[in-house]
Specification:
Keywords: Membrane, Transmembrane, Transmembrane helix
Order of helices and strands: HH
Distance between the termini: 55 Å
Number of domains: 1
Oligomer: single chain
Number of helices: 2
Length: about 70
């Protein structure tokens, strides 16, 4: 949804006289979308790491619990 709007905005500002504002706009849009992608990748990696650690902790906990009884 956001990328479609960004492409549409870039197309709309292409008719600038010297094209400088168009280049600045497209650069800022691509930069902001890169930041959004980096934040999303960070959260996905954090979630996967958390799930892996919790799974390892559960396996170790149940293994030690069984060995103690």
């Amino acid at each position: 949804m956001f990328l479609k709007g960004a492409k549409r905005a870039r197309r709309a500002h292409r008719c600038d006289s010297d094209g400088s504002w168009c280049r600045v706009t497209s650069h800022s849009l691509s930069h902001s979308s890169q930041i959004i992608i980096q934040i999303r990748n960070f959260w996905v990696a954090s979630l996967c790491l958390f799930l892996a650690c919790s799974r390892i902790f559960c396996v170790l906990h149940f293994t030690l619990f069984r060995l103690s009884f």
